[in-house]
Amino acid sequence: MFGYYLDLALRSLRRNKVLSALMMLAIALGIGASITMLTVLHNLSGNPLPQRSGVLFHPQVDPRPANLPGASKEPPDGLTYLDAVNLYQLGIAPRRAVMSANWLPTRLDAPDSPLAMRTDRATTADFFAMFDVPFVYGSAWSAQDDANHAQVVVLSKALNQKLFGGADSVGKTLVIATKTFRVVGVIGDWNPQPHFYDVDDVNDGGAFADAEQMYLPFFTWLNLPQDYGYGPMRCWGNDPNAGGHDPKAKQCTWAQFWVELDTAAQVDSYRSALKQYSEQQHQLGRFQRAPNVRLRGLLDWLDYKHVVPVTVRMQTWIAFGVLLICMINTVGLMVAKFLRKSGEIGVRRALGASGRAVFLQCLVEAGVVGVAGGLLGLPLAWIGLWMVRQQPVSFAASAHLDLSMLGAALLLALLATLGAGVWPAWRASRVAPALQVKSL
Amino acid sequence: MRTFRQIQPILAALRSHKTAVILLVLEIALTMAVLGNLVFIVYGTIQRSHVSTGVAESQIGLIQSITVIGEQSQGTTAGDLAALRNVPGVTHAAYGGPPLWYVERDPVFLDPSRQHPVAQMYEFQGSQDLSRTLGLHIVEGHDFSDDELPVLAKMSMSKDFQFPVLITRALADRLYPGGNALGRVLYDGNAASRVVGIVDHLRGEITGRPDDDYSMVYEYVVGAQNMGGGFMIRASDPARLPQVLHAAAAALQKADPAHVQNKLFTMPELRAKYFRSDLATGRMLLAIILILLVVTALGVSGLASFWVQQRRRQIGMRRALGATRGDILRYFQIENFLIVTGGVLLGALFAYALNLFLMHRFELAHLPANYLLAGAVALWLLGQLAVLGPALRAAAVPPVVATRSV
């Protein structure tokens, strides 16, 4: 039966080629626009580290004074130096990493080598294992290195290429902020997007910044001879500048902290440990507020921080508005088309076709338009994404069509046109045969 | 008059196609709603990207040069500035940063107790000659004179010290409505400041809000210190700014080899980068606007050509009864005008509703009424354009069609 309906639909569409083409083109444009924006949104709100996102958590505590005008109920994003050190030493989580980022003057360990500013991430040993960072040469530094304030450095593949021509540089030395650092490892391609572990990245790009060029042990970095900034530092109090340049100031949060918790029981016990820690700090008089802790998982954290740019969300809404307009356009054209076939439908009904059969015939015709429009929409979406990639914005590079979006595009096109076809088809199936046959 | 008399039968004919007409009106209304708001957003972005910061943008370049403590250095900031000033083509040089580049923003108070901030202002600070390097236009009072500037090396932060400052006209009007700002004292988080001059404009950022233009400038005399950060030059010839900036960077590196240079850009480059993402969004919205116009035109001309086909016999009859080609052409044009008018009226309502939603969710400004008028005119034109083909085909139907059966 379906084959017959399909044949009827194709005949009907062929009879009025221009109108059919217009309908398909309109659907294709709507699908193209909405799939383009949906793909951008899908990629931006994607999971940056699918294999690890379930076990990574971002602890927060609230060290702010009790009466801070205009303070939000949410604890600060970062930790103060003291809380960072205390939580780092808590030792309940199987793995944890404290971190921040800045730029450091760096040169090769040769007398006339020129200085250049390089982006770096200061962190602790577990960072690499927690975040599944692959190594090309060497390995991460050890917890012992962290404790000893060892002057060791891990390079990104790109920086190793730039400084050492891509050779195995383990054991070589660099001068970073006038101190000599030994290379212990070079990592492979690793650049999770969004840049989840530091969504306020101080370097250009914010949540879609690139991974840093080198990694240093956190406590070594903290003792460098000069202030090169300590990441996104936020302070409170009357004087907005107070302590702005002292990383150990007690009214400034800036350190980022992540833990790995493998089981639900670990998550629960870590959460109560955070509360207990806040309670204890409260009793010591350091925390003025009642325990106000958060322990968000990676995806919850990205959600909370609204990493998807607001313009992208707006454009997605608008693209769906365009699709809606395209659908109304299709409904209008189909109503006209099916109405014109009233005579034909009347004859078919008079010859014994049920209302249901006519309804299905019309719906198949709508479906054919939808599939054709969807197929035509795919290259349009591809062109749309190509145009997005040409835009000089930090997230543009990630705009690619993947298989799941391809399927979504076709499904969306089919559903949209079937949705648009239901009502015209229903009207067509309600044609009174006697009236139509009489007028022939 | 002839045209006018046609309206009655057109409305009667449309009544028998109620569904299709309503859908078309709805489509046009939605198009108008989306179109009006998108054009508003895009136009706002373009307008914003042309707002001046108030400085001599085409002549200014910046070198970010960072001190590295521990590296051997004989350089001084005064020496660095002298080296920059000696580069051919450089008229002024100063230590400090330009607008749009991490300008500090602090609350401003009128009372020394600092209880009630009046506004947030941008603070531009730097060495002697900062205001001349930026090329500020002083409209009241006077520019800094060297003898009144505090000397950084001897700066005693005593409680009653007052920095001489320049403030913008907009900030002056905000702080002292209707009054004279010259000579008045204001406070930021750290220090007291006395207003010596008013500049016409100096915007720290360009977000479109009026407080972009709330700025204060202060200078101090630098000498034997070795400071790192932003070094600005002003070139006499905007066309040669890139070459002059590179020469200046080389001269600075030579004067102070222990510095490490990071960013190097001209103000025009900074501005382009500042608006890059907004303009990219604007371009994407423009693409959506075009798609929308095409789809609506397709809908209008699709339905019109459908109706023309359906009415061939009636058209033939009218021709046979004496209607001219012009009458037929006009019939479809008036029909289209009526439908689009219905769509536009409903669309104005939708546009306001959508604007309210966008204002609520994305902090968009209120949609001015002239955008609706422009949208209506655009849709009328689009409708006429889309219907022209089908209407001409209708006008070409020969009267003899009336005598044939379907």
How would you explain this protein's 3D organization?
The complex is a heterodimer of chains A (440) and B (406). Chain A has helices at 2-15, 17-44, 81-88, 127-130, 143-147, 157-164, 218-222, 264-283, 298-304, 310-340, 342-350, 355-390, 403-429, 433-439, and strands at 56-60, 95-108, 116-123, 135-138, 152-155, 173-176, 179-187, 214-217, 234-235, 252-253, 256-260, 294-297. Helix content of chain A is 48%, strand content 15%. Chain A has a 6-stranded mixed beta barrel. In chain A, strands 9-10 form a two-stranded antiparallel ribbon. Chain A is elongated. In chain A, β2 (95-108) and β3 (116-123) form a beta hairpin. Chain A has 440 residues and is an alpha+beta fold. In chain A, α2 packs across α13 (403-429) and α12 runs antiparallel to α13 (403-429). Chain A has 2 domains: 2-45 and 309-439, no CATH class; 53-304, no CATH class. Chain B is α+β, with helices and mostly antiparallel strands. Chain B has 2 domains: 2-50 and 275-403, no CATH class; 68-258, no CATH class. In chain B, a hairpin with a 4-residue loop joins β7 (185-187) and β8 (192-199). Chain B has 10 helices and 11 strands. The mean pLDDT of chain B is 90. In chain B, the strands form 2 sheets. In chain B, strands 3, 4, 5, 6, 7, 8 and 9 form a 7-stranded mixed beta sheet that branches. The interface between A and B is large, with 55 and 51 residues.
